[in-house]
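Let us work through a complete example step by step.
Step 1: write down the sequence.
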Amino acid sequence: MVHYGHSNQLRQARAMGDYLIVGVHTDDDITLTVDGKDTYEEVKKAGRYRECKRTQGVSTTDLVGRMLLMTKAHHSNIDEDLDYRKHTDNFGKGPKGHSPWTGVSQFLQTSQKIIQFASGKEPQPGDTIIYVAGAFDLFHVGHVDFLEKVHQLAKKPYIIAGLHFDQEVNRYKGKNYPIMNIHERTLSVLACRYVSEVVIGAPYAVTADLLDHFRVTLVCHGMTEVVPDKDGSDPYKEPKRRNIFQLVDSGSNLTTDLIVQRIIKNRLEFEARNQKKEAKELAVLEAMKRLGEEQP
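Step 2: predict the structure and record it as tokens.
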């Protein structure tokens, strides 16, 4: 599962240019084997090792826990209760788990994080300004395929993605959706090369004011169902009236629902995977402790 923490690492790795990188690793994860040996020792000797800082705030373990707990405590404006935090912190851990690496961290949105992910480019004369909207939850290859197809619709595309607030997404998707809150989804979408700008908390209905404000040329939507607005109206009524609405087939059948169903189906496997990871990390901690004691 690739989230914005991974995206930031990949972005940094790509920025290193054409230099052959054999080992690229995050700077906040273990790099020792259980016997205390540096996993990247040979790579470092060859001068081919780089560390890329990962964006803090979410982990794959946390996201899987949110899917399985079926709560809404992770939504941006809902205070996390103690029960939710207790369950997520202990998800898939053994009874003696104390590893600092396997667990959850609190997401804190900052302007610097947004700047780090944003392209910073404004639309230029001749650009085709395309607006897409949705939840973009658990940003996955289906979303990327859709945005790539949208990007191919114009010679000079400038894609603006409107992200709905958590409460709006929960209204039309139900259950404990969205799995990722508005702040996390913002960084995930900004990390996509096809997206130029993100509207944080976009209105569900694509209004005339929104189209005029951003000078939108084209509005696109995937082949998924369009749920009516609260009053029963079509949220794409205005762009359809202007004849600038277009359905785009991503060619992918992967959806957020399908990912969640896979996680739920394989719950025991995920818990076992985390327990195994926790045990390995504890063994590394013990090895590091022994090495420290052996140093003169």
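Step 3: interpret the result. Strands lie at 23-26, 49-52, 128-134, 157-163, 197-200, 218-221, 245-247.
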